[in-house]
Design brief:
By secondary structure, the chain is mainly α. The protein folds into two domains: 2-76, 3-Layer(aba) Sandwich (Glutaredoxin), CATH 3.40.30; 86-198, Glutathione S-transferase Yfyf (Class Pi), Chain A, domain 2 (Up-down Bundle). It has seven helices and four strands; from the N terminus they run βαβαββααααα. Helix 4 packs antiparallel against helix 5.
Length: 203
């Protein structure tokens, strides 16, 4: 088994943080996104979608979506549970993971990919109008999140989960996307400082 990793890019970081929370260590193969190595023939043969990360199992199966990779390891090693516990807990984590991904993670990514000059070679064509639309979508979600975090310490309840990983990485990615968290969102700042202090966050 080995993980094809893409350094500081958001999706590879999600998986590395998840593995660190589980205390799981596996061999990693670094793919250089800056030189578009993920689009070259060698990696394309492994993952035709040319995306990172990708988990290659010993039988040759390749799992190429970050949350799917995390689910695989959750099943192999259920503790600590990062996809929730019990019917209610699992449903709440699924709900907030989905909301964090669609409401914040993807809009921030689209804003970055469609507006940042460094992404011109990867995002063809760049559509500036779509980038601006997604800036507004991300900021709108943050307003909802600020309210939600008044009721609990983590996105999906009392325990850290995959939803916190997704939202926290998205919040970090706002800087290169030239998005600024409003100063008044103290609950989001406190929540982020708490999760970023976890040892896994350095993965």
């Amino acid at each position: 088994m080995k993980l094809y990793d893409g350094g500081r890019a958001p999706n590879p970081r999600r998986v590395r943080i998840f593995l660190a929370e589980k205390g799981i260590s596996i061999p990693m193969v670094q793919i250089d996104l800056a030189t578009l190595e993920h689009k070259q023939a060698g990696y394309t043969a492994i993952n035709p979608y040319q995306q990172l990360p990708a988990l290659e199992l010993d039988d040759g199966t390749v799992i190429g979506e970050s949350v799917a990779i995390c689910r695989y390891f959750e099943r192999l090693q259920p503790e600590p549970p990062l996809f929730g516990s019990g019917a209610k807990g699992e449903a709440l984590v699924e709900m907030w993971q989905r909301r964090a991904e669609l409401g914040l993670f993807l809009p921030v990514a689209y804003a970055f990919r469609h507006l940042h000059p460094a992404m011109a070679a990867m995002e063809v064509p760049q559509v500036a109008e779509w980038g601006e639309v997604n800036k507004s979508r991300a900021l709108g979600f943050l307003g909802l999140l600020e309210t939600e975090l008044s009721a609990r310490p983590f996105l999906a309840g009392d325990s850290f989960s995959i939803a916190d990983i997704t939202a926290g990485i998205a919040l970090e990615f706002m800087k290169p996307a030239k998005l600024v968290l409003p100063e008044s969102y103290a609950r989001i700042r406190n929540w982020y400082e708490k999760i970023a202090a976890r040892p896994s966050w350095a993965a």
